[in-house]
Amino acid sequence: xAKSDNFFEINGKIGKLVFYKRNGKNFVKxxxxxxxxxxxxxxxxxxxxxxxxxxxxxxxxxxxxxLTPYIQHQxxxxxxxxxxxxxxxxxxxxxxKNLTDFINDPNRFATVHHQNxxxxxxxxxxxxxxxxTTQEVIIQQHHIAYLLKLHPKSxxxxxxGFCNLYSQEVITTTPPLIYxxxxxxxxxxxxxxxxxxxxxTDQPNAVVFxxxxxxxxxxxxxxxxxxxxxxxACFIPTQETDRLK
Length: 245
What we know:
Mean pLDDT: 76
Largest sheet: 5 strands, antiparallel
Helix content: 10-25%
Radius of gyration: 23 Å
Low-confidence stretches: none
Number of helices: 5
Strand content: 25-35%
Shape: globular
Order of helices and strands: EEEEHHHHEEHEEEEEEE
């Protein structure tokens, strides 16, 4: 592969050379042949793969859109691709590439609990979970205190709610906005933050999604991206008992 000045903006094949553009730069490489276009296009395996990937891409797009209220401060342009990659890996390895089986499984997100969906994330929520008995989200207090001390002139804005799948549609609840302020710095390592989150009675298989973002002020910048410093966003597991002792 060689870089090309490509003064005439040529794209495509000319003789034994192929001209193309990547990331705004022009390149040229030798055409070494390969499968004929029609043969590839009409191959049953290729058709099946294309159909499967198209369905996955459509579903990932719906999931990203549904999670938008939770990740409005998200500045990672790779979020959709990370989400799509996670879904593809799970569906390929655990559901034999069957998207429908994944959607119908109530434990579909178990393998990505606490897996952050922000490539540039600096916030980890490894010990957060949902207590289904008390219907509360439980977060270790010392983790929040550490983040507040790390950003002494900032606050933490948290959004948490439920995500559920119906057929190939994604349903999310409206996430309340909760702030962690100065008083959260001084509690002990054994303290826990408990956020009341009643589970919708008509969504027994819904899972909890949580995001925490460091912002400048709870009044001036709560809905602007300019105040963003760091963010964590992930699905968290459900437990029937309080396991943070």
